Amino acid sequence: MKRSAGILLHRSHREVLLGHMGGPFYAKKDDGAWSIPKGEYEPDEIPEAAARREFTEELGLPVPSGDLVPLGEVKQSGGKLVTIWAVEADLDPAQVVPGTFSMEWPPRSGKTQEFPELDRVAWFSLADARTKLFKSQHPFLDRLAALA
């Protein structure tokens, strides 16, 4: 089973920081194409360490200081198990320098192109985040709201 871990930054449980997925598949999508900064990790890796690493890889910034509050796990429809922690902190989206990934594009062209992992990062109210965020990640918004 694939596993993924990430960190959801929030400001006073009212706003959350989300990233818009980079690459050609999400270029013309907005609603439902945003994610909590996260990524896959190996079975022998500590999930919290993976969450911190993935945050830094995707945003190009270290995780802001603050207490990591576990928001638990969610099994996505594809079977991946996602674990998220919340941190109350501020971060200026203009400071983000996203990591990149390579893929063959266009398909079957033999050409490899590089794309940003996240092409935009923004703060959203919890209500707006529900529209922007992948549906499979909505339980994390509910859990964050329940902590307020």
Keywords:
37% strand, 3 helices, alpha+beta, globular, two-stranded antiparallel sheet, seven-stranded mixed beta sheet, 148 residues
Describe the structure.
The strands form 2 sheets. Strands 1, 2, 3, 4, 5, 6 and 9 form a 7-stranded mixed β-sheet that branches. Strands 7-8 form a two-stranded antiparallel sheet. 20% of the residues lie in helices and 37% in strands. The longest helix is centred in the middle third of the chain and has 13 residues, at 47-59. It has 148 residues and is an alpha+beta fold. The mean pLDDT is 95. The protein starts with a strand and ends with a helix. A hairpin with a 3-residue loop joins strand 1 (3-11) and strand 2. The protein has helices at residues 47-59, 126-132, 138-147, and strands spanning 3-11, 15-21, 34-35, 38-41, 69-75, 81-88, 100-104, 112-116, 118-125. The chain is built from 3 helices and 9 strands; from the N terminus they run E-E-E-E-H-E-E-E-E-E-H-H.
